[in-house]
Amino acid sequence: MRLTRLIWAAAGGLAAVCFAVSIAVSGAVAEEIGPAGLSDLPAADVVILGEIHDNPVHHRNQARAVAA
């Protein structure tokens, strides 16, 4: 049982490192995108959308980004 947990922990750590390296290599940037910019998002395989959880404006903007 301990070996299984160790393998899963190592796999999770490896996945995190691979994700970090892919972000660094791809030149990804993080910046605030206003409502007007949501209709003109650059092409990307993955887009990470942040929010303040109880902010309805953020939720509407996320819905617009997903629909774009």
From TrEMBL:
Q: Write the signal peptide boundaries.
A: 1-30
- What keywords were assigned to this record? Signal
Q: Where are the bilayer-spanning segments?
A: none
Haem-binding uptake Tiki superfamily ChaN domain sequence ranges: 39-67
Show the Pfam families listed in the entry: Cofac_haem_bdg
- Any idea what this protein is called? Haem-binding uptake Tiki superfamily ChaN domain-containing protein
Q: Provide the species name.
A: Psychromarinibacter sediminicola
The top of its lineage is: Bacteria, Pseudomonadati, Pseudomonadota, Alphaproteobacteria, Rhodobacterales
